[in-house]
Each structure stands twice: as structure tokens, then as C-alpha cells.
Amino acid sequence: MSALPQAASETAGLRYVGAMLSDVGRVRQLNEDAVTFVVPPEGAAAEPRNGLMLVADGMGGHSAGEVASAIAAEVVRRCFFELKGGVRDILSTAFTAANKAIFDYGQSHPECAGMGTTCTALAIRADKIWLAHVGDSRAYLLRGSQLRQLSEDQTLVAKMVRDGVMTAEEARVSEHNNVILQALGTGPEIAPQLSTEGTALSPGDTLIVSSDGLHGLVDDAVIAEIAGRMAPAEACQELVRRALAAGGHDNVSVGVLRAFVATPDAAATENDTRRIPATDAARSTRQLPVFERQS
Asked: Rounded to an integer, what distance in angstroms lies between the CA atom of residue 7 and that of residue 13?
């Protein structure tokens, strides 16, 4: 299990504290998930204070999935922090660039032909969030006791449920529930789900991103209860533990970020950076550069 740091930051009257965790699981030999967690920097003007939470779940066999997810995470992160303009336009450009980079790499490297990756990103600017999403990783907003899935699963069974052809219960046991309709890098063009405008955050709101190695095994109600009750670092650890206990047949990645009112007392309490201890050194873990503070 890779231990990822918890960090706190302040922006537009809100402070943010969060953590991410990625684990290879109990069956796979390689972690093909890639995650990125960038907290808005302290001491910057309100408008430039950007943050990013991202999970990418690679596919393609051997090392190809790992390559695809790593490219997606790096290209989206770089574009988001280097480009100027509206957040929606930046995210659209970033996902298009990531898709092209993965597709072109697969075309020029036969051993990676056909590789692809899901990619779900929550961008933070000041006190608002924007979603960019392709595939079946997920982003949630927990407000009070209400968990809302922000991303739309781009899978065959999810589409059939939305079209009224299949019930949600039938979808859960369908042999086609792993068929993804869209992924970065599998074709020359994509149509990501993008937020039309930012969603304002309120104190107490909790954001969650996850690969399907988590939400495919742990019910939404359990995710909401744990993420709402525990501090982000402990919530990540407990959610991964639940997924492993349920079989851990896939890589498991999760990020939890909470917003709260910025006060001097809160700053003194939350500024500590803590690291979750690895609990199972016997399992192979991919070390991911997931925490960065922008200067």
C-alpha cells in the first residue's frame, strides 16, 4: 500500500485538507492506476489558487495500462497548471491533449497498441470545483449525509440503465458490467464529460475520487459513511481496507478532500502533514508522485 501525505491549504475563505491512497490490491501484480493530488497553495491571490484531484485507471495488459494512466495524469496536470483561461476550456484542452498523447504513443510503440485509461479529475479554483471525466472511475460530492455522484459512468450497463433497458440490480450482476464505452487513448477523438460551470463548495463538503477497484466493491452508502465520519487520511486507509476485504481483485485508488472555514485555530490544528504507515509491505506497490505544492 502506498502511503500518501495529507495536506491542508486555504483559499477564498475555505481551507482544504485531503489525502490520496493507491494500492495494487490482492490479485494484480502491477498497479495500473495513477493518481494526482495538488492542494491550492497558501499565500497566493484568490484567483490563481488552483488544486487538482485525479485518478486514472489504465487498461491494456502488461505495462501498457500503467503507461496510459501515467501519461494521462502528467498531461492533464501540466496543462491545468500551465494554461490560462476558463477552467472548463482548460480541462477540455487537457483531456484532448492527454488522449492524443496516449493514442500517438500506442501507435508508435506496438507493445502498447490499444492501451487506454479512464480519467476522472476534479479541478479546484478558489471555492468552486469543475469535473472532467472519461470512463468509469468516479467523483463524488458528500454534503451533509447526501452523497452525489458527479461523474457519469461511461459503461455499457450504465447506459442501459439510463435508457431503461436494464435495472440497477441487473446491471450489478451483468456479465457486461466491465465494458467501457470511452477511454483516453483508444481512438483519435473523445467526448469527455465536462462541468458547464463551477460548483460552489460549502464548509463541511467532502470530495471523493476513486477507481472502480473501490466503488466496484464498496457500496456508495459505506463510502459516504466513512468519508463523512473520518479524517481524509484515515478515510482513505479504511476505504482501501474495505475494498481489500471484499476481494481486492483490482487496483484500488481513492482520494478524499474536505473543505472547512478557515480560522486561526483550525490552521494550527490542521497544518500538520501526516503520512499513513504502509500496512502490508509484502504487496507490490507502485510509488506515485501524488502530492505537489505549486510555488
From this structure: 17
